[in-house]
Amino acid sequence: MDFGYLFFLSSGLFLGWSLGANDAANIFGTAVGTKMVRFNTAAVIASIFIILGAVFGGAGTTETLDTLGSVNTLPGAFMVALAAAVTVYWMSRTGISVSTSQAIVGSIIGWNCYCGESTDVAVFGKIFGTWVLCPLLAAATAVLLYFLLRRFIRYSHVHLLRQDSYVRAGLIITGAVCAYALGANNIANIMGVFVDSSPFSDFKIDNAVYLTHVQILFLLGGMAIATGIVTYSHNVINTVGNNMLKMTPLAALTVVMAQAVVLLLFSSQNLRNFLLSHSLPAFPLVPVSSTQAVIGAILGIGLLKGGRGVNWGIVGRIVVGWVVTPLIALIICFVSLFFLENVFNQAVYQPELEMF
Amino acid sequence: MFNVKISLFSHTKELEQKIDMLHDKIIEVAMVFKKAVDVYLKEKRSTDYRKLSKEIKIIEHDADTLRRDIENRLYSQNLIPDFRGNILELVENLDKVINEFDEVAHKFYIEQPEIPEKYYERFKELVSQVCECAENLAMASRAFFYDLSAVRDYSKKVYFLEHESDKTTASLKEGVFASDMELAHKLQLNSFLTEVADIADLAENCIDQLLIYVIKRDI
Description:
The structure holds 2 protein chains of 2 kinds. Chain A is mostly helical. Helices cover 76% and strands 2% of the residues of chain A.
């Protein structure tokens, strides 16, 4: 094992830790905030399913990021991930729930700018489109689900205690699905830039276990996310769980369900193939932001209730964060690449050989 | 390191039954109380009245046990976190209604008030209104757990019956104080009438709270 590689990979692992600390709140924030699920239960379930999602479902969105900017040296990848991680960590500390996807995209474009590579406008447009579409879709899904669930409860005459149990089970199951989808969708943000320079070889135990070199990389990323969840996510959970809108457990369930639907739509290759094979419109496999999805869903519920309970101050700060995050990541990445190349003498870019 | 505890469907059914039983107790105590007052008006402190008064005491004791059990389970099993406080309050208020029935029945047993025969019919009417009020409270509270839309219907009945009981109490008190009874006798009957009417007032307070919980749950 090349320890130099591990050093460079550390920035990706730091980004994974930041994502775990920040995004676990999106999955279980509402459930823990409404006291329906204990933090320990949430942390264990989220960790297991994020790792599973990353290892077994993470391939789809990686390709999209790869086409945005193919970071082709290890020091370059190190700095791209580090710039994104620093941005996420710094923004999280200021109390703004940020999007890791936006940070990494900003970072990659920073790398493109520094290296003089042209950014694929079509791919960027596709990703940018999801930043607008994702919260809107999550809000619409949440409103629809809330409406249906409330109607069902009103006419089913289920005892309040039984409802409580169902909602609790729903929060745990949907949280697990969401964690799987988040792992599958967002692992590309963390490890995507390291795929091209991965030194791992495929791992095989008889015919029972088979992991490709990319899956091993994703397993490491997944474990970094899990560490972030266990060690730091408790604080961020309170912001998502309680500060933006005081929610009922049913609203909490709706938010997590809407988030799961949106994440799966944007990350499942199987779902995409299924939709395409039935001549239905499919969504691009793009790493979307779970933060945007959850905030879109919470706002959808808030507006359905007349918008009275929504803390618009926090919403404003979050939206400003969405605009600022990619810009900050871009600038940090651009400046840091300059230092890495000129002060530390590292190759951050390898020009591709032109074929004559 | 982690104490992962997922208690989903366990014990829920048992607690549901206990809450249902508490509602049954209100209906039961109201029916026994009505019968006890009938017996008292006919036979004063007879053996039958003693039996019925004892029966009310047992219902009150059972209701206390149920209330404590419900409260313990709600907290120890971390159930309905957002409504636990409200349900606790509701259960306590329901228990207060049962306690009031017991107190009045016991007061009859101890003080043995002399109720003039000309007030019998209106007194029975008051007791009947108060008991019906409590029964509708039980049904409204039960509906809160199963069917929110029905709470409003039963609440309307409680409000109506409470208002009627107020009118009956006022007319009875007027009659008592206009009569030529001893002042001490008048004051004793006044205190009895107030206590009986208090049962309907407690039911009304309970319904006021219940309707707020309904709004909260509906949001």
